[in-house]
Amino acid sequence: MAYIMRQQGNFSQHVRSEFFEYASLLIAGAGVGLFSAASPIVALLVVFGFAAIAILLYANAFSYSRESTQIAAVADETSDKRYRLLFLLFFLSFFISITIPKSGKTLSGVPITSANILIFISFILWFISVLFSNGFTSRIPLFNTIIVFILYGMLNSILSLFYRNPFRMVLIEFVAFFGFIPAYFLVCTVLRNRHRIEVIVFAIIISLILVCLYGMLQLRFGFERIAVPGITEQYEMIRYAEFGGRWNYIEGGRQKLYSTFQNGNIFGNHLATFLPFLGGIILIIQSQWKKLALSGIFIGVWYTLFLTYSRGALLGGIVGVFALAVIAKKIHFRAVGVLLVFAISLFIFTNQHSDRPELARYNFRRLTSDPNQFSAGRVQRVESAIKKFRQLPLYQKLFGLGLGANLVVDNLYVYLFIKLGVIGFFLLVWTLGKFFITLMRLRTQVDDIRLQSLINGGIAGLIASLVHNIADVLWFFPPLAANFWFLAGISMSIGMTNVQERLCVKGLHASPQNR
């Protein structure tokens, strides 16, 4: 009990100073974005200079603190201070990744963004922390399982080079599908107390408000008028000229809402992923005024999601919210009936008004029959890819065509199944399956209803993201791959925090001075 009171006292003493630290980091992030717009070289020098200083300070801190961990589950004040710099970098990279993910420059067709640079620096510091720690990785749930999947990705990349797949594409796809997985390790390392969880929750709410408001400004004043190349959009990739603007335009010339994500489908996936998490936050709010305000934000995010005209994201959002209701046991028979009536009414409405250009994409009769519909092309590409896979020799069926192979399929699971093979796809399913099983078991051990609700929202958000990937290969886009693993780490860390607190309290009660 004394430990909890001491933690609360420390919280009240450090809130103000930490607020200024976070505010300073956000201002620094904005400065990096401005530098990127004016001179990407200067921005890179500033960022890497800061990284060099940070690495020296971080390594120096470890040279004075290499005590072995006796109880892995107990997070003491020393360890919180020990990972303070790493948490600040994670906070900044995470906030930029979910708010202005496209801030930066495009070099040789490869996006170099502020968020990716900061994430890369955070990974370097995390790796240093592993080298200077004893028994460190044992604190991270499923560390060995995920490492096996990453190692297979490396093996597949080597095989891809033997297949003579383009080296550039092999590297890009490895970074896209495997390079952001360490974000899960990073979050599980630094997110170790309630105050940091509150900071991340606050950052998610603020980010959702900002990206949705910016999207509304795009509709009000025009997409080009308020665009800030290098910050809200990447240079040379604003219009997707090589695709004829197809990604961001629908029938009738109406443009998809994409906010700072530059693509309506990407923005839709982001909203669908964090909508259920926002729902989990609403469920723990006791104040009626706060709950009303957050409910208004929730409705506003739903409206923004619809304006992205991303059918996969809309389906993912619906499934995610329904999953939240089921997991949180907040749904009853009447509620199920209401949802079914709403879904049927929406289906009838969209089909009856499908002659309107903006609703033609929701005409379900045309989705798989009209060859001019992009969705029909998606189905045909999946069927064609599966037929070709059946004709491959046995070793390629087992290990896949390899990363970087020429393949156009709008389904993440078919895409990875063909490129990674049966073995790689099995490891993917095994990793995700063990993750969700572990998280669900951990959720049952959490005795704090508030933390449990946040875990429920995280699980539902991850489900929404996976559902949307049935209709697209969204992990190919760095912001979405990073945010998926960020949210996975956040959800797992929330559960671990509660377990650590309980073990810590038990340890204090069992100590000699309390006997």
From TrEMBL:
It comes from the Bacteria. Keywords: Membrane, Transmembrane, Transmembrane helix. Coiled coil: none annotated. The chain crosses the membrane at residues 20-38, 44-62, 83-100, 112-133, 140-163, 169-187, 199-217, 266-285, 297-325, 331-349, 422-442, 454-476. InterPro entries: WaaL-like. This is O-antigen polymerase. It comes from Candidatus Moduliflexus flocculans.
